[in-house]
Amino acid sequence: MSLTPSSPRAVLFDLDGTLIDSLPDLVAAVNRMLAEWDRPALSAEAVKALVGGGAAILVERAFMTTGGPVTVEVGELLRRFMADYEPRSAESTRPWPAVIETLTRLKEAGLLLAVCTNKPSGATAVVLSKLGLAPFFDVVVGADDTPVLKPDPTHIHVILDRLGVTAAQAVMVGDSFNDIAAARAAGVPTVAVSFGYAHGPVAELGADRIIDDYRELPSVLGLDLPPPELVGMVSSFAREMAADRTRLRELLHDSNRAALLDHVHAMRGKCSMFGESSLADRLGQLEQDVLEATTNELDQLVAPIFERLEWLVPETP
């Protein structure tokens, strides 16, 4: 089930859009900058389309999008932008759901963690500190720490060297083409988050895995493994999950919610036993709400369960 033959020694994370939702503060800062030049404000979606290539590209494209270049050079505009943005970079920025608990889980497992971002190093340090994320990371490499930015693999190589691990011992987690391309060029396996700032379908980024929730990451990394005494029964677990999926579909079309509750409870127990914690968590939420949920709410609850089951036990066409 895991991404690599054995659990990795290190995990590298992009920052904006991957670990944190920084778009609100970026939008506010971009629009404060544009207002000084009597330029129209940009929507959140417009700014999101400009994020990922570094602050200089963000500033330059913001002006090009709203009427073209101004009389001041990009370098000076960038300096002004960062002077305004950096001290306010964590006013509305927050970690994505389950980031803290996932980073805690990875550190408890003994993994080395790093941030690999095109964000300026000063703003990166401010955000990580204010959001309480800094203590999790052994290495942080921002835009000012290497001569080139992602998708150049130099960022990745610098981090691997500092951590003392090989490409095969690491995994890169990102949300954009730049993240995935840099990691692939460095020979590092990749995980893409589906909820970031990708400039197109995440499935087209070419990542080795895609996650919809950070609680899936430990399993993808091979950390949520069954106890040693159950390792030989993993294939049986997979067969049971396939059969349980079929029965779950049947019960969803039945009016007997009590039977559905019993089945979900049993599935959750199996998943917990075999270390499939992300699926167990989702089944637990369904178990909690199944008796009172409307049909539409039930559909929303089971959708991610079926997605995870498809990843665990792909259905043959």
UniProtKB/TrEMBL annotation:
<keyword id="KW-0378">Hydrolase</keyword>
<dbReference type="GO" id="GO:0006281">
    <property type="term" value="P:DNA repair"/>
</dbReference>
<keyword id="KW-0460">Magnesium</keyword>
<dbReference type="GO" id="GO:0005829">
    <property type="term" value="C:cytosol"/>
</dbReference>
<keyword id="KW-0902">Two-component regulatory system</keyword>
<dbReference type="Pfam" id="PF13419">
    <property type="entry name" value="HAD_2"/>
</dbReference>
<comment type="pathway">
    <text>Organic acid metabolism; glycolate biosynthesis; glycolate from 2-phosphoglycolate: step 1/1.</text>
</comment>
<dbReference type="GO" id="GO:0008967">
    <property type="term" value="F:phosphoglycolate phosphatase activity"/>
</dbReference>
<dbReference type="GO" id="GO:0046295">
    <property type="term" value="P:glycolate biosynthetic process"/>
</dbReference>
<keyword id="KW-0119">Carbohydrate metabolism</keyword>
<dbReference type="Pfam" id="PF01627">
    <property type="entry name" value="Hpt"/>
</dbReference>
<feature type="active site" description="Nucleophile">
    <location>
        <position position="14"/>
    </location>
</feature>
<feature type="domain" description="HPt">
    <location>
        <begin position="226"/>
        <end position="317"/>
    </location>
</feature>
<dbReference type="GO" id="GO:0005975">
    <property type="term" value="P:carbohydrate metabolic process"/>
</dbReference>
<dbReference type="InterPro" id="IPR041492">
    <property type="entry name" value="HAD_2"/>
</dbReference>
<protein>
    <recommendedName>
        <fullName>Phosphoglycolate phosphatase</fullName>
        <ecNumber>3.1.3.18</ecNumber>
    </recommendedName>
</protein>
<comment type="similarity">
    <text>Belongs to the HAD-like hydrolase superfamily. CbbY/CbbZ/Gph/YieH family.</text>
</comment>
<keyword id="KW-0479">Metal-binding</keyword>
<dbReference type="InterPro" id="IPR023198">
    <property type="entry name" value="PGP-like_dom2"/>
</dbReference>
<keyword id="KW-0597">Phosphoprotein</keyword>
<dbReference type="GO" id="GO:0000160">
    <property type="term" value="P:phosphorelay signal transduction system"/>
</dbReference>
<feature type="binding site">
    <location>
        <position position="175"/>
    </location>
    <ligand>
        <name>Mg(2+)</name>
    </ligand>
</feature>
<dbReference type="GO" id="GO:0046872">
    <property type="term" value="F:metal ion binding"/>
</dbReference>
<dbReference type="InterPro" id="IPR023214">
    <property type="entry name" value="HAD_sf"/>
</dbReference>
<dbReference type="InterPro" id="IPR050155">
    <property type="entry name" value="HAD-like_hydrolase_sf"/>
</dbReference>
<dbReference type="InterPro" id="IPR036641">
    <property type="entry name" value="HPT_dom_sf"/>
</dbReference>
<feature type="modified residue" description="Phosphohistidine">
    <location>
        <position position="265"/>
    </location>
</feature>
<comment type="function">
    <text>Specifically catalyzes the dephosphorylation of 2-phosphoglycolate. Is involved in the dissimilation of the intracellular 2-phosphoglycolate formed during the DNA repair of 3'-phosphoglycolate ends, a major class of DNA lesions induced by oxidative stress.</text>
</comment>
<dbReference type="InterPro" id="IPR006439">
    <property type="entry name" value="HAD-SF_hydro_IA"/>
</dbReference>
<dbReference type="InterPro" id="IPR036412">
    <property type="entry name" value="HAD-like_sf"/>
</dbReference>
<feature type="binding site">
    <location>
        <position position="14"/>
    </location>
    <ligand>
        <name>Mg(2+)</name>
    </ligand>
</feature>
<feature type="binding site">
    <location>
        <position position="16"/>
    </location>
    <ligand>
        <name>Mg(2+)</name>
    </ligand>
</feature>
<dbReference type="InterPro" id="IPR037512">
    <property type="entry name" value="PGPase_prok"/>
</dbReference>
<dbReference type="InterPro" id="IPR008207">
    <property type="entry name" value="Sig_transdc_His_kin_Hpt_dom"/>
</dbReference>
<dbReference type="GO" id="GO:0004672">
    <property type="term" value="F:protein kinase activity"/>
</dbReference>
